[in-house]
Predict the structure.
Amino acid sequence: MSAMPSTPAVPASDVDVAAPTAMGGAGGRIALRERGTSFAALVIPPLLVFLVVIGAWILVSQVILAESKRFLLPPPWAVVDVAFLDGHNRAELFTSLWLTTKAAMVGLFLSIVIGMGTAIAMSQAKWVERSLYPYAVVLQTIPVLALVPLVGFTLGYNFSSRVFVVVLIALFPVITNTLFGLLSVDQGHHDLFSLHKGGRITRLVKLQLPAAMPAIFTGLRIAAGASVIGAVVGDFFFQQGTPGIGTLMNTYASELESERLYAAVILSSSLGIVVFLAVTWLERRVVGRWHTATRGTR
Amino acid sequence: MTQTLTASPSTQAPPGLTFDAVAMRFPDGTQAVEEASFSVAPGEFVSIVGPSGCGKSTLLKITAGLLDATGGHVGIGPGNLGYVFQDATLLPWRTVRGNVELLGELEGMPKAQRRTAAQEAIDLVGLGGFESKYPKSLSGGMKMRASLARALTLQPSTFLFDEPFGALDEITRERLNDELLALFERERFAGLFITHSIAEAVFLSTRVLVMSARPGRIVGDFEVPFAYPRKPELRFEPAFAELSGRVSESLRGAFA
């Protein structure tokens, strides 16, 4: 038994704030660090890397490559000049990018709706999970590239088959991460809801979905990147109809239009980055206040 | 088994808690609890001490209806049942206020009433000013206070505590003990408290039960004679030490 000297009564909250407890303390420190990160510290490191990459690019293009082989990697200013300063080329690139963006976004949206719906159904009944999960895995393991031409045959070479390809690729991460989140609710929280007659719907809406949010966003981030890749892959195969950015890549590659090819690659990866940032922003808005992503304490 | 979790005086069970030969054998054959019989009247605060895994928590879970006993009967008197878990079990996406309002929300309490009840409970446990903080920025002791406040909103007439302060440091634990006592004196609920700490059990309770290692049986039963209100200094009085010693001895026997 402890022989601790008795402590005089002080207002409770004073003591508790200072009381060192592992969980509360660590959470607070991480939160402080994030708030303390200045804009400069956030922007300068990636900017430096960007400059290094551009420098290396120029080095390879102007110094290492022989003049006859320079078409393999034209210098950055040539890319800007040919692809972005020329009105016709720029219009072509951005029209295609817009088409690809639409396919990616509609596909991503459908993946979220279908994927979350499926995962919720799976979390509610074990038999649904048992029946559907194997096919979700199949969806992930079949080589989508092999399926794409079949999609073209059956759905036609139009917008909807591009969207279909996106859904094929982006659906799985949404399903698995949502399901994982819904099923990993703390047992104590479940007991709490059981004690107070929390029904199925109440439990889903007030407990499981909010608890699953961080996992859902992990899935969304993966799906968002995948949706852009899916849309570009779709473009590659659906050469008929209005060209997407992937279609252009294919054309430029075969015509050795390397300036415009690089521009197309840069644009499609920029699209990926924008989508990724948008999801990250949304994640901060939705779970940032209460959830601290686990990462190693340094 | 008679189970009344909310206000519905339909059961004939006497006020407080009545355990009648309650037994629990898990499907894997483990006999967790064997023939536990005792009762807790309103205004009584009974603590159960015992070695880890002796089925103390199982007994509480059976009482709350989270588990079904395989034998015997638990009678729960009219009124709400409060349950304070080992962990604070706060929902991390809700603020302190949101968490404290949760039970009222689940039990269908009107919004205005819920608000008032939550604010009263928050003030009572000394969390005033922290209403809009999220659990991640609270210390362990403050989380436990919020958890306590949450249970208080339903004004339970029977209160179950499953080792609520086990993870706290000594000073925070003693302070929360003092405050829990103040609550008990005010509300006069029937309290059943599970703990590892003999000092905590003796300090809080009107009666201390000692449970043996598996299968859990009640092997010691001590009346605690100290009058309420109890001062923190009680912990250093000879009579307190003497009683704690006897409980400790009984507990040592329980391990054998």
Observations:
- Chain A has a mean pLDDT of 83.
- DSSP finds twelve helices and no strands in chain A.
